């Protein structure tokens, strides 16, 4: 896996993640820049690649472990997980991210609005590129 992990710019910031995920994220964020320039200008990240279990689990591996998920900040502020509220800017980019196959964590059992992760269909597509 290590040979498929890259650190690259996706526009406003650099990320470290699985190469096709970084490329997909760069494309999605270019669309965000065109459609929601104010949100794009405020966008930052709290990280993409972080090898760990899903919060609260003893067995489920987080998508961050593979570099296929990202947590966004707006003006340096991270949306508080589990409070049932979301930052407005994240609502403005969620549909754009969905168009590129990224799911929004706001609908998780425990709301996680800062979190976007690559869909299973994207992962399956990328798997063929990583052999």
Text of the CATH class: Alpha Beta
For this structure, the CATH topology is Muramoyl-pentapeptide Carboxypeptidase, domain 2
Q: Report how far the terminal alpha carbons are from each other.
A: 10 Å
Count every helix, treating DSSP H or I runs of 4 or more residues as helices: 4
Strand content: 15-25%
How much is the average pLDDT? 94
Number of strands: 7
Radius of gyration: 14 Å
Which structural class should the secondary elements be placed in?
Answer: alpha+beta
Give the biggest beta sheet. Answer: 5 strands, antiparallel
Percent helix range: 25-40%
How many structural units, i.e. domains? 1
Name the helix and strand elements from N-terminus to C-terminus, one letter apiece.
EEHHEEEHEEH
* CATH architectural grouping: 2-Layer Sandwich
In the predicted model, the low-confidence regions spanning at least 5 consecutive residues are none
Q: What general form does the structure show?
A: globular
Domain Peptidase M15C: 56-117
InterPro entries: Peptidase_M15C, Zn_M74/Hedgehog-like
GO molecular function, one term: peptidase activity
Pfam family, one: Peptidase_M15_4
């Amino acid at each position: 896996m290590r040979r498929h992990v890259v650190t690259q710019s996706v526009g406003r910031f650099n990320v470290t993640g699985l190469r096709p995920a970084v490329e997909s994220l760069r494309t999605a964020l270019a669309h965000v820049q065109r459609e929601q320039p104010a949100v794009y200008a405020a966008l930052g990240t709290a990280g993409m690649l972080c090898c760990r279990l899903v919060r609260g689990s003893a067995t489920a591996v987080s998508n961050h472990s593979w570099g296929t998920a990202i947590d966004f900040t707006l003006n340096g502020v991270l949306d508080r997980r589990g409070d049932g509220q979301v930052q407005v800017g994240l609502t403005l980019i969620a549909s754009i991210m969905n168009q590129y196959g990224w799911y929004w964590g706001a609908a998780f059992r425990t709301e996680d609005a800062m979190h976007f992760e690559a869909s299973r269909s994207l992962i399956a597509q990328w798997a063929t590129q990583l052999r």
